[in-house]
Amino acid sequence: MPKGPNGEKRPADAIGLAVMIGRIATGEAESVAPDDGKDPAAKALGAKGGKARASSMTPERRAEIAKAAAAKRWAKPE
């Protein structure tokens, strides 16, 4: 079965897809977001942690990390 851009299941044929879109538009069916299998509380903590880490770093340290990442990204593969 084909998957949409967010991983949701969609009908394989054009008529089935048109029927599904019509049902969503009229409110008979809901467009559901796929479950990514992650705990919402853990996702929220992860987002907080990244912001807290970035705010506690000095601009010089962030620049060092960014330069190292760029060098690694653009290094020629061996």
Keywords:
78 residues, elongated, 2 domains
In brief, what are we looking at here?
The protein has three helices and no strands. It is mainly alpha-helical.
Structure overview:
With 78 residues, the chain is an all-alpha fold. It folds into two domains: 1-36, no CATH class; 40-74. It contains three helices and no strands. The longest helix has 17 residues, at 40-56. It is elongated, with a radius of gyration of 22 Å. The relative contact order is 0.07. The model has no long low-confidence stretch (mean pLDDT 83).
Q: Give start-end ranges of low-pLDDT stretches.
A: none
Shape: elongated
Specify the biggest β-sheet.
none
Percent of residues in β-strands: under 5%
Helices and strands in order, then pairings?
Blueprint: H1 14-26, H2 40-56, H3 59-74
